[in-house]
Design a protein that fits this description.
168 residues, 5-stranded parallel β-sheet
């Protein structure tokens, strides 16, 4: 992974090691995130990563799928309150194709498998995806293994999200 460099757009924070200003190239983008937390997904880890990257995500719309658990709802509300991010839950009956329209990145953290995620629809819509898996199945490819740290470390996941937004 190459380090992020936002030359001329900000500076690095001493404690967070994250740039403090979003590069102009990511303003107005939309992230579609999977908020399920439990046996299938790690929505709270993802929300933690978004909190760590919040200064870089100002001006980015974040829509969360499958986060109808009260814990996820409260975490999203706290994130919005603490950071001012434009983040909200997608209603359970929303049209996935409409949500994918205009999205730049789909991000999720899966526990073991990705079968529960709408990855075929994401790919069909031409949206880039970032899906680290915490415990990939035996025989998982190099791409799954390369993202293992991001599947466990919210700071690394935040870096990966910003890197994908910058490069997409």
């Amino acid at each position: 992974m190459r380090p992020l460099s936002f030359v001329g757009s900000g500076f690095w924070g001493k404690q967070s090691d994250m740039p403090l200003f979003a590069p102009p190239s990511i303003e107005g983008m939309r992230i579609l995130a999977d908020g399920r937390d439990g046996l299938e997904g790690r929505g709270l880890l993802l929300i933690s990563a978004l909190h760590l990257a919040a200064r870089n995500l100002q001006g980015v719309e974040i829509r969360v799928l499958g986060g109808q658990d009260v814990v996820i709802e409260v975490a999203i509300e706290a994130l919005r309150w603490d950071t001012g991010l434009s983040i909200g839950l997608v209603p359970p009956d929303a049209d996935l194709r409409a949500e994918l329209a205009g999205a730049r990145l789909f991000v999720a953290v899966a526990a073991r498998k990705t079968d529960h995620l709408p990855l075929a629809e994401v790919a069909a819509a031409g949206v880039s995806s970032l899906v680290p898996v915490q415990f990939p199945p035996a025989g998982a490819g190099a791409s799954a293994l390369a993202l293992m740290r991001a599947a466990h470390d919210p700071r690394e996941l935040a870096r990966q999200i910003l890197d994908r937004l910058e490069s997409s």
